[in-house]
Every structure is written in structure tokens, then in C-alpha cells.
Amino acid sequence: MIVRKQNKFLDISVTIFIAAAAILFLMPTVLTIANSFMTSSEINANYGVMFSNMSGGEKTFISEDINLKFIPDKVTLDQYKSVLIKNVDYLMKFWNSVILTVPITFFQLLLAVVTSYGFSRYPGKIKGLIFFVYIILMLMPAQVTLVPNYLVLDKFGMIETQELGVSQEMERFVSRLAIILPAVFSPFSIFLLTKVMKRIPTSYVEAAKLDGAGEIQIMTKIYLPMCKSALVSIGMLVFIDYWNMVEQPLVLMKGDNTSLHPLSVFLSQISGAEAGLAFAVGAVYMIPTILMFLYGEDYLVEGITYSGGIKG
Amino acid sequence: MKKKKLRSQCGRGREKIFSCACLVPSIVGVLIFFLIPFGIVIYYSMINNPVSGEYVGLENYRNLLDNLAFTKAAKNTATFSLIAVPLSIVLSLGLAILLERNIPGKSIFRTFFLSPLMVPTASVVLVWQVLFHNHGTINQIIEAFGGQTVDWLKSPKGQVIIILMFLWKNIGYNMILFMSALCSIPRDIIEVADLEGAGSFYKFIHIKLRYLSPTIIFVFILSLINSFKIFREVYLLTGKYPFGKLYMLQHFMNNTFENLNYQKLSAAAVLFALVMIVIIALLLIAENIFGKDVEN
């Protein structure tokens, strides 16, 4: 009886603790969204001091202190109007992010399906060795891999694109390709997907073979559907990682090509007169990943069970 | 009979070849973008300059280790990772164990903890500024309690806030990994321990931790990689040249890329790769030791 009471007390305090921590975790996201509905003068009044040292000559009154506010005095969509309609610049940067991240995610997954299939069928010593090299490569931070990437891309003329002597359209395409190509061959999703595919029982394959299925059919009709939740969760991880990218564009897109930088890099440069828009830009930038999260959270959690250990 | 066997072996051979052919596109890409140029990087790290190509042995490495900017960046990155990674493991494991209890609203809390994973760094960077600015919320709270305020982004204590940002971003995902690992511990073992009167502390140390060890290693390596990405937060908050303690390895690399000093870059990349390889080797050994008796 006493024990039970203690447990109940413990349960309640654990719940309170967890709830408090969980709300704290959600707070920055909520704050960004809530503040995106403020008028730009309210933002300047509350947070102006943050931007003033960057821009200098602000005419409006700026409070000395920052006032953290959750609920705007007046809810307005003005910020969104400016971001989405009046000033096309942000939309262009947003497009820059899309045009890099979507092909990277798609082709990395496509390559991963084919390659992981190769790794999981008829495993042998040589395949094991190659897979090990991939693991090492996957674990290398950007600080290491960017150097070899840079060397190759520079050799191909994909960094100093103005020296290629092609049209501007082409230059932009090449510069984007410089970010996309190395990312497509990054072994992260191969590593995770191979682990999932290795768990598919061979009896399925044998049964399909008896029915006369060829290798390509086994790949597309058996392996692919069985990896669906893993593919969704890996795809989400890859997408969010590249949606967030900062290192690669900073190093690989130079000169005129800096205008191709994704919004993730550009957001840090918002200052002065545009400060009032910053929260809305941040909120808009969250939309794709939040939608994805709402759709795929269960896949993310479910697809995670493959982990455990480094080796395949 | 013999013919049939032969044919099936032939078929098997063709399938094997197909499975190997599947690897080719990826291997070609990896060779072109990673492995071959990395060979060149190693070569560059041992010559005086790409034009004359004179072999200088380890001189570039010696210069690098004498370079104050590099040692500072390496030291900052190492201290950050050494504190942030274990902290994130302990905290996320703790949360996962707490969430094992049957508490109301469990799945909503899980979603809340996981949400930072899906929020782009750039989106919330303004909130961090609001919180950690010299006149920001955290300092106001400190002031209200009569404490000494800190200009977080311009002080050695700035490491505290980047650790907080790292924990915010990574704890949720690590927690999920631990939760699924905790679920996969065989129930009967726990029941036997209960019958024999084992305390919950004993159960945790001798049973759960044992079964969790492969996951702990996996989470460790994942967090370690993510800890090198803290550069994103720092860059978005403070730009190219942050305050001393926030100067990360990636800052050094970026600034070296700008003046295209191949020798310095190559030596730094090779050195970093070596350190990573040593860490990975140690983890693999650890995995072999701890993973053995629970694998089946």
C-alpha cells in the first residue's frame, strides 16, 4: 500500500518534470512563429537593439533592453505580405534552398536503394570491406570532406564558374551542381538503408524467385515496399540536414554565385530595416520541415529501430 | 540433373554480378568526389606548394600545429565536443528512462522533444539572439535575481550557450533511439531479476546498461558528428570572426579556403581525419567488447 502511494507521487513529479522540459523544448519554435505575427514597429521596439549595432542609423525609438514577448499587441500578416509578395528576394533565396535540397534528397535516396540492395544481397569479404570504407567516410565531418570536394570541383571548374565562358544560366546550374553532386554520393543513407535491407528474410526472396521474379523485380517489388518507413525516415533526416546547410555553400559558392546561397545562410545577414521581417522569414523557412514532421513523425520513430551499433 | 544444377549456378552467378553492378554508380561517385581527391589532399599536405611540388615531409603539419588560429580552433572544438556529447547522452538516456513510465500525454511530450530536430537552425537563430543578447532575456532573469550578467556571445562563457543549443537540437532524437533500445530489452530477464529481488539501480547497471551499450556507442558517434555541425549555429549568430572561445574548426577551414592555402588546408584535413579514425577504431573495439554477450 505504502509502496503504491510512493509510486504515485513519483509518477506525478516525473510527469510535471517531463511536461516542463518538453514545453521548454518547444518554446523557441513557438516564439519564432508567434513573433512572426507582430508588426514591424513592435519588433523594432522590442528587439531593435539586437539589430542596431549592425545597421547604425536607425531613426525609430529603440528600447535599451530586449523584451521577450509571446503574444503580439496586434496580430498582423504584414510581415508575411512583405516576405512573400513585396520583396521577392526572400522567395528567391527560398527557391535556392529548394533547388538544392530536393535533388540531393531524391538522388541520394535513389542511389541508396540501388547500392544498399547491392550490399545486402550476396554479402562477401570485399563488399564488407567497401562498406567499412563507407562507414569511415560517413563519419568524417564536413571539415574533412569539404577539402577533397573542393579540389575536385575546382579541377572541373565548378567553383570559379565565370572562367568557364558559358552563359550565365549555365554558370548558375554548374554552381548548384557543385553542391548537389558530392552530397548525392554521401554514404549516410546507404549506411542506414543497408542495415534495414539486411534484415529482410531471405525466404521472401526465395519465394519470389520460385515465382520467376528477376533481380530487378525483387528489388522493386519486395525490398522497396519493405523499406518504406525506413526510406521516409532517412529521407526526412537527409532533407533537414541539407535544408540546414551552411558550410558547403560558404565554401563552394563564391563570387557572383553567392547570390545562389540558400536561405539558411542568408538569414544571418538580415539586419536594420529588414529586421521586422526576420521572424516571418524564419517561420516560412520552417514550413516544409514542420509539414514533413507532422506527416512522418511516426515513420521517424518507427524507422529508427534499425539502429544499434556501428557495423552493419 | 547435372545440367539443371549448372544452370541454377549460372543464374546465381548472374545475380551475384547484378548485385555487384548495383554498387558501381556509388563507388564511382565516392572515388571521384572523396577517395581520389583525398589521396591528393594527403599528397598536398607533404609538399611545399602545388607548383614546384617539392617534398617537405611533415613540415606543413609542424607549421599547422604552430599556427595559433588552428590550435585555438581545434581546442575549442574539442572542448565543446568533449562536454556536449557525453552530456547529451546522459540527459537523453535519463529522459528515455523517465518516459518509460506510464505517464499521461507521453506521445505529445515525445513530439515536443523531437520538434527541434525538424526546425531549421536558421529559423530559430533570432530566438537565441533574443535570449542570449547582452540585454537579452537570460541576462534580465539573472539581473532580477541579483546575479552578475554576462555578455554571452562575447565572453568565454559563450561555450555554455552553444552547448545549450546543441542539447536542445539533439536530445530529442537521441532520446528516441534510447527509447526504442529500452523497448527491445527482453522482458523475461527483467522479470527474473525482479523475482530475485534486484533493486532498480542494480537492474539498470547490470542489465539495462548492458543491453543499451551498442546504442550508446551509436548515439555517441552520431552526436559526435553532430557536434561538429555546431558551426552552423555559431556562424549564424556571430558571423565569420566570432569571439575567441567560439572560434570553431570550421571557421578556420573557411578562412583558409578564402586565401586558398592548400598546404594548410590539406594538413588540417588529414590531421582531423586521423583523429576521427582513431576515435572510430576505439569505438569499434568497445562495440566488440560490450556488444558480444548481448547479441544473438
Write the layout of secondary structure elements.
The complex is a heterodimer of chains A (312) and B (296).
Chain A: H1 2-35, H2 40-55, H3 78-86, H4 88-120, H5 125-139, H6 142-155, H7 168-184, H8 188-198, H9 202-210, H10 215-226, H11 228-243, H12 247-252, H13 263-266, H14 278-302
Helix pairs in contact in A: 3-4, 4-7, 4-8, 4-11, 8-11, 11-14
Chain B: H1 2-21, H2 24-44, H3 59-66, H4 68-98, H5 106-118, H6 121-132, H7 137-144, H8 158-183, H9 187-195, H10 200-227, H11 231-238, H12 249-258, H13 262-291
Helix pairs in contact in B: 2-13, 3-13, 4-8, 4-10, 4-12, 5-8, 6-11, 8-10, 10-13
CATH architecture of chain B: Orthogonal Bundle
Share in helix of chain B: over 70%
Low-confidence segments of chain B, ≥5 residues, pLDDT <50? Answer: 1-10
Which fold name is given in CATH as the topology of the domain at 99-271 and 300-306 in chain A?
Answer: MetI-like fold
Separation, N- and C-terminal Cα atoms of chain A: 48 Å
Count of discrete structural domains of chain B: 1
CATH class of the domain at 99-271 and 300-306 in chain A: Mainly Alpha
Structural class of chain B: mainly alpha
Report the biggest beta sheet of chain A as strand number plus sense, adding barrel if it closes: none
Question: What portion of residues of chain B belong to β-strands?
Answer: under 5%
Mean pLDDT value of chain A: 84
> How many beta strands in the DSSP annotation of chain B?
0
Instruction: Specify the CATH homologous superfamily of the domain at 99-271 and 300-306 in chain A.
Output: MetI-like
**Structure annotation, total helices of chain A:** 14
Q: What is the chains' assembly state?
A: heterodimer
Tell me the distance between the termini of chain B: 39 Å
Computed Rg of chain A: 25 Å
What is the name of the CATH architecture of the domain at 99-271 and 300-306 in chain A?
Answer: Orthogonal Bundle
Provide the residue-averaged pLDDT of chain B: 86
